Amino acid sequence: MDEEKPSLSLTIHHSGKSHPISLPSTATLQDLASLLSSTLQIPVENQKLLISPKPGLQKPPFAATRLDALIPLDSPRLKITLLGTPAKDIAQLNAQGEATRQRDEARAAALSASRQQQRKAASASASRSRGGIHTLSGGGGDNSYTFHRLLPLSYLPNPSRSQQFLARLRDDPGIRTAMAKHRFSVPLLTEMDPIEHTTQDSRTLGLNRNKGQVIELRLRTDAYDGYRDYRTIRKTLCHELAHCVFSDHDRDFWDLTAQIEREVDRADWKHGGQRLTENDFYNPGDWQAMEDEGEVFDECGWTGGEFVLGGSGGSSAGSRSRREMMARAAEERMRKEREKDA
């Protein structure tokens, strides 16, 4: 082909640019692809030739057909477009892809190592606290003595508001002060489903599991249409924090509860509150009065097992009362929705 006198002049369009080339009159489609490979550095196997108006798209392996028999060389509409990427661009893309892969693998390895360290730290912390009060033994500062996780019940209405309520309790100046003073570190503060802790005779306001592993609080009203008074819930929380030390409702427990209540009330007073009385904010008499009204704070600190109010745990009567409460709550919600629509 090199010995023949060029007689074919073509223009090849590639990536928005025009490339004039010359070929012998006997050149074939294969010859054209070879010439483009050497001049534009695009391997033949990466080339596609779009020839219009016909024969259209040509792909490798290209036929050994003469160009003068394949394409209308004299047509003013003739246009040959080369589709393909130069070898250097392909190499650069491959290098970038390899660099991205290595970076992603490094990040994944670092993330995995970090998570493994977190699991080890959590396991070590759980081992230290298992079987006793859930506190940290110094070195962590006041930030260690708090509720480390907040958990609203996602299946109940408006869980975001419950999250805000739990955060308010966690960040309450009085609660923070009392927890730091007594070195209380509670892994989980969560809300209680009222229906699950309500019988015909009583309503549980709070629970402390395994001496501070989990504290549950009754945030919502029985019909799920609102939230209970904040200071009453905070009062319950002080009661449950005392169960981190004492399980039974004995004199030591009530003395600690009263002390925590005074500390919470005093810290709240310093932050803009106003103390109206010198009486204890919380005392056994208050609890007894609320119990007479059918509200109980808990059945002392407890560990594992099934907890059912009213004594006969697991009885059919208890199950029926819970179902009745759920039905009444649903009816109350429907009634309020109908009144709102009306």
UniProtKB/TrEMBL annotation:
Gene3D superfamilies: Phosphatidylinositol 3-kinase Catalytic Subunit, Chain A, domain 1. Residues 138-335 form the WLM domain. GO terms for molecular function: proteasome binding. This is WLM-domain-containing protein. Residues 1-21, 95-138, 310-342 are annotated as: Disordered. Residues 108-130 have a biased composition (Low complexity). InterPro entries: Ubiquitin-like_domsf, WLM_dom. Residues 321-342 have a biased composition (Basic and acidic residues). Pfam families: WLM.
